[in-house]
Specification:
Shape: globular
Oligomer: single chain
Order of helices and strands: HHEHEHEHEHEHEHEEEHHHHH
Strand content: 15-25%
Distance between the termini: 29 Å
Length: about 325
């Protein structure tokens, strides 16, 4: 989902033909942890470098949103049931995950939103301790969204130039005399404070605290037909339940987000990426090759994410159900 300062270096992304995302954008950290196996200090000490991937064990870093949990759960199920490889999952935000990839404490991250470009430059480009693992297959996009019932009532509300005249619709106790822009977790990729300042918008970012808390607030507002404007992303399983319309911010152009303090444009379309510890990528055998081959669609990710977050299935149960129903898909990922 999504660490701060999405693509601040202005690194060029390939243009997608369609669009989670970021927009990985997501369950609470606590809910995610229930579905994950924590990486203990003892385990890290025992395993040392990521060459453990070739010894029958793989550790995957999982960011704190449900789409990332879906990736990892399916990968874990197939690794353990088809490749006889123990898979440990540990919840880490993107920036910290790159440090763990560098040190060898984790082997892979399966969904990076471009939120740690300095770490990519350091570990991938300079130290070469981390290597790119290819596209996940999902294109992420972050933006500002309002419910369609509000856009139908006020058609011009979907143009950022008109937001100030509607700020009173969005006032809350937390935002004071400004309009509230609802946010999720403070760890997610966001340029919103800079966008608000640089576009002279009379709004304030207010954080729900987690993906699950943000979803709860959005669903409550939507059910009551209350006005709200929120930071949100695609793909996301909730988009199948809530009819949301994106607010048009100034067009994204390559490099418009290069300086985090000066961002005054929309978010990019971001093909989500995988990264591996370099030793694991080279020596991880079938497990490493499988994760390199792992590539699915936003619809497939959303199917698993919805089972976890909406149907309240455990991540393992959701992964097993999806795998049993989609063998023709994941068989192609096997070495």
């Amino acid at each position: 989902m999504r660490m701060k300062n999405l693509n601040p270096t202005g690194r060029k992304h390939p243009k997608p033909s369609g669009s989670r995302t970021h927009l990985t954008r997501a369950a609470t950290a606590a809910a995610v942890v229930l579905g994950l196996t924590a990486l203990s200090a003892c385990a890290a000490a025992d395993t040392g470098s990521s060459s453990k991937g070739s010894a029958g064990s793989v550790t995957i870093a999982v960011p704190s949103w449900v789409g990332a949990e879906a990736n990892a759960a399916v990968a874990q199920y197939i690794l353990e049931n088809e490749l006889d490889t123990k898979a440990e999952l540990t919840q880490l935000d993107e920036s910290v995950a790159f440090d763990a990839l560098n040190s060898g404490k984790v082997d892979a991250i399966l969904e990076d939103w471009g939120g740690a470009p300095k770490k990519v430059d350091l570990y991938v480009e300079d130290k070469k301790t981390v290597v790119a693992g290819g596209d996940l297959g999902v294109v992420g996009h972050i933006g500002w969204f309002v419910p369609k019932y509000l856009a139908d009532e006020h058609p011009d509300i979907t143009d950022w130039k008109n937001l100030n005249k509607y700020k009173d619709l969005f006032k809350t106790a937390e935002s004071g005399d400004k309009g509230q822009l609802l946010e999720g977790s403070p760890s997610y990729t966001t340029n919103d404070d800079a966008i608000i300042k640089n576009l002279d918008l009379d709004y304030k970012t207010v954080y729900a605290g987690s993906e699950a808390a943000q979803i709860t607030q959005m669903k409550e507002n939507y059910k009551a037909k209350k006005p709200f404007i929120t930071y949100w992303w695609t793909p996301q399983w909730l988009n199948a339940q809530l009819d949301l319309v994106e607010v048009k911010l100034p067009e994204y152009k390559e490099g418009c987000d290069a300086d985090p303090a000066k961002v005054a444009c929309a978010y990019a379309q971001t093909p989500l990426q995988k990264y591996f510890n370099a030793d694991f990528a080279e020596d991880g055998g079938d497990a490493a090759q499988f994760l390199k081959n792992f590539n699915w669609t936003a619809e497939q990710q959303n199917e698993v994410a919805s089972m976890i977050a909406d149907e309240k299935m455990s991540s393992k149960a959701a992964a097993e159900k999806w795998a049993k129903d989609n063998e023709d898909v994941w068989r192609k990922w096997l070495p």
